[in-house]
Amino acid sequence: MGRLAVDWHYNVLHRKYVDTVNKLLPQDWGVDDLIEVIEFADEDELVDLRDAALQAWNHEFFWHSMRPANELVGTADGPFGMLVKRYFGSMGALREAMVEAGRSQFGSGWVWLCICSEQNLVIKTTSNADNPMFWEERKLPVLVCDLWEHSYYLDYGPDRAHYLGTWFDMLANFESAAQNTRRVLQMMSQNPTWYAGEHGQKEDREHPQAPQPHR
Q1: Domains: count for the chain
Q2: Residue 187 and residue 12: Cα distance in Å, rounded?
């Protein structure tokens, strides 16, 4: 991703979603955690707020899924490395699967590397603002790549597969994915009902940490 694409993506598009969350967030909710905002908005059928909060969360996670291109590639070790080997065979096979899944996704969306409730490592794609963490049977992300055209058209035109391959090779932050894997597995063991999609009540629901809306 070139400098112009990153600057426009982060400072204009991502900023717009954060500003929309802050504008639409009911003050009497008393929350500013994005996961709570998303779930409360979903329950109250506040579609515009839910979509903006999803995109704010998705983009924040996307930035943390990348590293500077001049940094050394992190190694797929620990639980993350074991899951990659078990479910994909190698990092090369994981790359091929993510590129193909992202290339095949129709329209705008995201390609996610996730851990599901059985602690399998899976690739899922979603349309628009959707996020597998909020499906009825949750899939917990450890890495994500943006498939919206504004992520790649300035640098790659319509060649999404080239963008995805370059992103995986040059920008994907596998050290972050490894850290996220450890955190997700630990949180799953501590609160298995949340990850199975059993929401509980607003006032006593537990959830993982999420990026906060910027004030």
Answers
A1: 1
A2: 33
